[in-house]
Amino acid sequence: MPSMHTGTADPGLSEGPLGGALSRFASMPVVWRILSLAIFFTVWEIAGRSNFNWAFPSFSKTLMAFFEMLGDGSLGAAYLRTIEPLGIGLVIALGVGISAGVMMGLRRDVEWLGLPIFITMQAAPMAALIPLVTYVYGIGLTSKVLAVVMLAMPVITINSYKAVRNVPASAVDMCKSFMGTRRQQVFKIILPAASPMMFAGIRLGVAEGFSGVVLAELLITPTGIGDLITFNRSIAQYPHMYAVITSIVVFAVVAVTLLHRLEMTLFRPEKRGT
Amino acid sequence: MTLYGYRIPSMAALLVWAVIWEIIGRFELVMLFPPFTKVLAALGDVISTPSFAAAARITMFSYLAGLAIAVVFGIALGMLMGLVKPADRLLNMWVNIFLSAPLSALVPVIMILLGMGTPTVIATVFMFAVWIIALDTRAGVQHVSPSLMEMSQSFGASRFKRLNMILLAALPEILAGVRLGVIRGVKGVVIGQLLVSIIGVGALFNLYSQNFLMAHFWALILILFAFALSLAALVGRLETRVEYYAGSRG
Amino acid sequence: MTMAKPLVAETAVRAEDSDAVITVRGLHKVYGNSTVALDNIDLSFMRGHLTSLLGPSGCGKTTLLKIIAGLLKPTSGEVLVNGKPVRGPGPERAFVFQDFALMPWATVLRNAAFGLEVRGAPKAEREDRARHYINEVGLAGFEDKYPHELSGGMRQRVGLARALAVDADVLLMDEPFSAVDEQTRRKFQEDLIRLREVENKTFILVTHSIEEAVYLSDRIVLLSPRPGRVADIMEPDIDRNVDPDLIRREPAYLDLIDDIWRGLRHYVE
């Protein structure tokens, strides 16, 4: 049966061409990550040097621009300004989002009234509201905070709601059967059982919040990171512009990854459910 | 929810919100909201203008083009990652990075590379939609039951046939990814045009805010929201159809 | 079913006069508008007895148990516990769940003490009681483990300890061994027989296993599906004071299993 032999030779179904010791080395995630980064930066460097586009700097130039801005303090100052609306917005989004989500999960009437709004908010392009908010509240901090809240809150709320609704019915029945009050059901069973999924929603909300603050700083009025991007673009200092953009992407990804780590240590997978 | 024994459809709550909106607007409680009836009246105004027709055309075109590329590329990338281990190890990190990165920060880069026009918007839609499609396709391919693959091997199915089987078996996950991609794509098409700001709805938003046309502004937002929701509902319906056989997959 | 027929009449008479802990009267349960889960159930459960509710899936046995527990409301009819109608869960009943319903974030000790925690018992007292019953179900030394560190059988022992710790008169067990592998289940059943000698409690056990019902029960209530009705009641005449392995070889045990299977066979299609 020749077809069976071609089957085992398929790289997807067998382990690939690497042999014994080498494959064990290659199965280490760190090695692959470094390799992956190296390939990405090399491709970037080559693409930048090939001059295919006058506005595409090489990786080395971008890196140099990054250290230059880090050295003269302009990057640090920009981050400090950006953190302000991001932080305030996230605190509001977390407070309102989690309480709204939990209430919708616990009460049918709140669910009926609130859920369609949040489903709409999650599916709809909330960014379209940013110009409107700017138009009404001006170009100050309020608009930027609102931009962060609008983008971050829906996913936090929907996840909190789903987390509460996904608590196993038998766990709540168990508390009821021992004559637990509604309060005990909520605080001793429902909220602890819902917290892993709620936390995952918070992580997604933080990622959206980063998107919101960058968008706000690009659209409303250039401050912080948005200002550095816009300014460097206007004077055609492309390595600097790329460095800023890369740094905010890295910053957001690192923040989200750290939250993910925290999630994994707080709610170890085996403790998530029986 | 049921009230006095009658079942109230869940989206009826939106009517309640419309009434609250109207009240807030009438009494000017929150500056952000003009009366809902005024917004509805402006709806006709907005739709009948030729600039709206142009904006709708640009939006539809760049959305569909960007999404089509994202679907084709995303599924191909996901299949590659699901089937070829080294490719997965090299690319998985990047797909995950782009999934949680603030993609709007990348739009200025696209803008200087592709110019202030439709290509930039198409690229933005693509960027927003492609990663989740790739990741869900990968998950779907990896979850194809090994016994199904062993079965097809033992019956001597050709390589092409088996690839086809994998695609079909992973279809529920792929469609779930496409649905999320459709929703993210709408966000992309709006954000792209807002940042480019001289074409499509971005230009309309500018026009309305310069002329203090609050109701028109809201009308346009309502149209965009309705567009996003009906697209999501459409793919959702398609998805339940596929889940019908996915359920029997066990 | 020749052997079981007279028993129906006999128990019906006995239900009138002897002391029943739980009496079920004219119970109906309708889901939605038309699905009849339980249709006119009249039963009484004797103090100190172990009664099994046995039947194929869809016969409403779990529904009946949850109504007795006060977790579900009947459409009509009533349940009396010690002569008082049931309005909800009460201290004289404790429930053992099919999926164990343990809190994954809490230790064995806290899980076992949970019923007392909810009732506001002081920490030291409830942990003492919990420790006692953890010991009794054979889990001594596992107090500080988490549920994910235990096997399925051990998890259900925690569920049992939790139910015992609140010192209820009646233990309501909803297919307690169905999520447990066969060997563990046998050991668990033997332990349950021994436990009954120590703890003077009334057990109501929902099961779909004929062997399990015959092995454990003083009385078996056979339910038929769609709509759920009492099809038959039988009282296995088996001496359980002997070696547990001998029970499984007794002719009375084997004959009754055969009888019940013949009665249930036509529902399983």
From TrEMBL, chain A:
Gene Ontology biological process: transmembrane transport
Domain ABC transmembrane type-1: 79-260
Pfam families: BPD_transp_1
Localization annotation: Cell membrane
Keywords: Cell membrane, Membrane, Transmembrane, Transmembrane helix, Transport
Family: Belongs to the binding-protein-dependent transport system permease family.
Protein name: Putative aliphatic sulfonates transport permease protein SsuC
Species per Swiss-Prot/TrEMBL record: Palleronia marisminoris
Gene that encodes the chain: ssuC_5
TrEMBL record, chain B:
Gene: cmpB_2
Ranges of residues in domain ABC transmembrane type-1: 56-233
Entry membrane topology: Multi-pass membrane protein
Keyword Metal-binding: no
Main location: membrane
Compartment(s): Cell membrane
Record protein name field: Bicarbonate transport system permease protein CmpB
UniProt-listed InterPro entries: MetI-like, MetI-like_sf
One Gene Ontology CC term in the entry: plasma membrane
SUPFAM superfamilies, A to Z: MetI-like
Organism of this sequence: Palleronia marisminoris
Keywords per UniProt: Cell membrane, Membrane, Transmembrane, Transmembrane helix, Transport
PROSITE patterns assigned: ABC_TM1 (PS50928)
Gene Ontology annotations of biological process type: transmembrane transport
Lineage: superkingdom: Bacteria
PANTHER family, A to Z: ABC TRANSPORTER PERMEASE PROTEIN MJ0413-RELATED, ALKANE SULFONATE ABC TRANSPORTER-RELATED, MEMBRANE SUBUNIT
Similarity comment text for this entry: Belongs to the binding-protein-dependent transport system permease family.
Entries under Pfam families matching the protein: BPD_transp_1
Parts of the chain that traverse the membrane: 6-24, 61-81, 93-114, 120-141, 188-208, 215-235
UniProtKB/TrEMBL annotation, chain C:
Lineage top rank: taxon: Bacteria
Gene Ontology MF terms in the entry: ATP binding; ATP hydrolysis activity
Enzyme Commission designation: 3.6.3.36
Hydrolase as UniProt keyword: yes
InterPro entries reported for this sequence: AAA+_ATPase, ABC_transporter-like_ATP-bd, ABC_transporter-like_CS, ABC_transporter_ATP-bind, P-loop_NTPase
Domain (ABC transporter) ranges: 22-250
Enzyme class, spelled out: hydrolase
Keywords: ATP-binding, Hydrolase, Nucleotide-binding, Transport
SMART domains: AAA
Membrane-traversing stretches: none
Family: Belongs to the ABC transporter superfamily.
Name of this chain's protein: Taurine import ATP-binding protein TauB
Organism of this sequence: Palleronia marisminoris
Lineage: Bacteria, Pseudomonadati, Pseudomonadota, Alphaproteobacteria, Rhodobacterales
Gene: tauB
